[in-house]
Amino acid sequence: MTPFESLAAAVEGRVTTKADATATHRDWTEITRPWNLQVSQEDAVAVVDVDSITDVQQTVEFAAAHDLSVSTQRTGHGAAGNAAGTILLRTNNLNTLEIDATSRRAHVGAGVLWGQVQGSAAAHGLSGTPGSSPGVGVVGFTVGGGLSWFSRKFGLAGASARSFTVVTADGERLYVDNENEPDLYWALRGGGGDVAIVTSVELQLQPAPSLFGGRMMWPADRARDVMLAYKAVTADAPDDLTLWLDLLHFPGSPTPLVALDCTFLGAETLARELLSPFDSIGGPLSDTRATMSPADLASITGDPLDPSPGISHAVPVRIFDEDVIAALLREPIFPLLSVQVRHLGGALRAGQQTPNGPTTSEHLVYLFGSPTPDRPVSLIRDRLAALADDLAPYTGHGKPLTFLAPGETMSAALPDQSVRKLATLKHRWDPNRILRSNYPTPAVDDLVGAEVTVH
C-alpha cells in the first residue's frame, strides 16, 4: 500500500493524486484548478475532499509524517499559485449552516458560500457581512479580513467572527474565541488561515430591517461627473451608506462605461436624498436602485459565478481628490475590465482588535483584468503597473489579505506589528510550517527586530 492509499483508507472523503487521475483518465489540471483560472495548482501532490473534521485531522497528521504541507481551499478565488508540495484540502463538504435568530448568530461550516448565509439570514431580517460575490467561501473571506458592503458600519468580516472551530498543525481540534486561545482568535480574524485550519466559524449577524441598494450606469463620457459626485457624497457620508465607483470596459464592447454601486442600511427616502448628486447627472443608461433583501446583494454588481481568469492589484489611497481623479482618467482603462474605487472609513478606522488594525486610507482602488485573445496577460500587467505608478503619490498602506495578488506578501496588507505577531504565533502553533495559506506568514527569523514569545 502506498502512503496516499493509506490516507485514502483512513478518511471518509476522497483522496486523489496525479497517478489516480491518470489511471482513471481524469484531468489533473481540472482536479487541482482553483476558481481563478489564471492560477495553476498542478504542482500539488494530492487533493483531499474532506467529509469531516476527523478527515482534516487525519490529513494534517499525514502531511506532518511525510514532510508535506496542507493548503486549505473552498473555492480558490484567492489562490496565489503556491501549491507546490502541498495537499490541497477541499472543504466543500463541511457545509453545515445554522441560524440562531435569537442571538443573531450564524454557525457556518468551511464549505458554505456567502449566498447561502445571506439567503438564510434574510429570512429572519438579518444579514452577514458579505462582499459582492455570493460564490465566495465564508470562512476564507472571514479569515482573510473580508471587505464587505457593510464594513463602514460593522468593520471587516473578520471582526464579526465570534468563535472558530479549528484543527491545529499537530492535528488537535480546538474551540477558539476571545476567552479560549485569544491570540489565535485574534490571528484568525483577518490574518489568514496560516496558523490553523478553520473548519467552522460562528458569525455575528446584523439586523437589516431596511436595505436600499443597486447600480446606476452611464456612458464613459460622464466619468468625471460621476467621480465628482462620488467625491462630494463620500466626504460626509454616514456609516450606513457604502459607495463603490466603477470604470468598466467589458470584453466585446467597444464602449466603456462608468457605474455607481451603493447600499444603504436604512429607508429608501433618506438613501435617495443622500444620493441626489448622482441624480443630477444626465444620461443614465440604467438605474437598478431599490429597496431590496440582503439575500439579493449579489444582484448589484452581478459578479460571475463560473470560474474565470483574473489578474488584479489593489491600491489603498489616502484621499480621493482632483489629482486622483486625473490619474484614473488620464488614459482609457483598456485592456482592464474594471477599475473600482471603494469608500472605506467609518468603522474601519477603529480596527476592532483584528490583524488589519485601523484603516488610515479612505478609499481602495481595485484594478482587475481578465485575459482574452484581445487582452493578453502582458498588456493587462503593463496597464496594472502603469495605473499603480500613477496612483503612487496618493497610495497609503493596508488592505485585507483577500485583496492581495500573487507576488505580493502579507506585509503589503497588514501593519508591521501585526505581521510580527502573526510570525510569532506561526512559530508557536506550526513550527514545522505544515499549514500553508495563500499568503504565508513570514518566518520570525526573516523579520528585522521581531521577538519570539512562546507561551
From TrEMBL:
SUPFAM superfamilies, alphabetized: FAD-binding/transporter-associated domain-like
Keywords on record: FAD, Flavoprotein, Oxidoreductase
Coiled-coil ranges per UniProt: none
InterPro entries per the UniProt record, alphabetical: FAD-bd_PCMH (IPR016166), FAD-bd_PCMH-like_sf (IPR036318), FAD-bd_PCMH_sub1 (IPR016167), FAD-bd_PCMH_sub2 (IPR016169), FAD-linked_Oxidoreductase (IPR050416), Oxid_FAD_bind_N (IPR006094)
Location of the FAD-binding PCMH-type domain: 40-208
GO molecular function, one term: oxidoreductase activity
Cofactor requirements of the protein: FAD
Stored Pfam families: FAD_binding_4
Family: Belongs to the oxygen-dependent FAD-linked oxidoreductase family.
UniProt protein name: FAD-binding oxidoreductase
Species of origin: Antrihabitans stalagmiti
